[in-house]
Design goal:
DUF2007 domain-containing protein; alpha+beta
Length: about 110
Amino acid sequence: MMTLPDPTIVFRTRSYSAADSLVAFLLAAGVNARLVAPVNEYSQVHAGEGPVFGAVYDVCAAGCTQDDVQDLMITWQEEQTLVSASAEWFCFYCGEVLQHSVVTCPYCGKSL
């Protein structure tokens, strides 16, 4: 199987939190992934001071096969569905369900 060229957009969304969560999930799985923030005329405006309704976030991956990324994205989407259907605490970055409210995710180590 051929690996993805550097970089290849594997996911596009208007939700920053979804894009950031997928990047964390892919990184944890060993995929070279990154979030590409939108660049537009409002990119120099501070948060809360300009329109963001048209913002689109891209998740790029490299150095892996398309099948690997697709399988991981299916798993990530299933986890997101489970988390959104539950009233449990979860990590916004990796999507793991937490036993209680914590300051740092015990799975990915990011601050919540």
